[in-house]
Amino acid sequence: xxxxxxxxxxxxxxxxxxxxxxxxxxxxxxxxxxxxxxxxxxxxxxxxxxxxxxxxxxxxxxxxxxxxxxxxxxxxxxxxxxxxxxxxxxxxxxxxxxxxxxxxxxxxxxxxxxxxxxxxxxxxxxxxxxxxxxxxxxxxxxxxxxxxxxxxxxxxxxxxxxxxxx
Length: 166
Ligand code: HEC
What we know:
Number of strands: 4
Bound molecules: heme C
Oligomer: single chain
Number of helices: 5
Largest sheet: 4 strands, antiparallel
Structural class: alpha+beta
């Protein structure tokens, strides 16, 4: 009976951390988009500045004791958003459409869990990640991110992923 009870408790807590991770990812995305849209209302250049400043800030804000949240991409803009070892094979499978799920969860070798959720390209994103980016805007991007590879995306393509470790 006691074992059953403990098992139930641990199942509930696994479920709770998964829900919390997804909730934090949602908040991360929502806050970022709000900043982005606010910036775009001023100018695309301003929006880039805001993105550069706010993305790491919001990432820290939504991460908490026990749950780390971030973004990652194979063709990244910020070199800090490179995939970690555990993400690589899943990212590949998502891109090759071998995974149709909304997100995956995997066991990491430190006893934690890793969650990966694709971020799709929307029309709003094309201004800075699309195929025909305004030349002077792209110069400004390259100025801040000389190794930028995050262009050439089409609507609906996977632009990158939210990740969580908990
Ligand atoms: C105003 C220009 C701009 C727009 C519009 C924009 N982004 Fe970005 N994006 C950036 C910048 C700048 C960075 C680098 C942020 C940083 O330094 O962390 C970035 C980084 C990212 C990253 C992190 C991975 C990487 O490449 O470093 C993802 C994922 C991403 N953008 C997705 C999107 C999506 C999805 C949209 C549309 C909803 C979008 N972006 C719209 C400028 C933009």
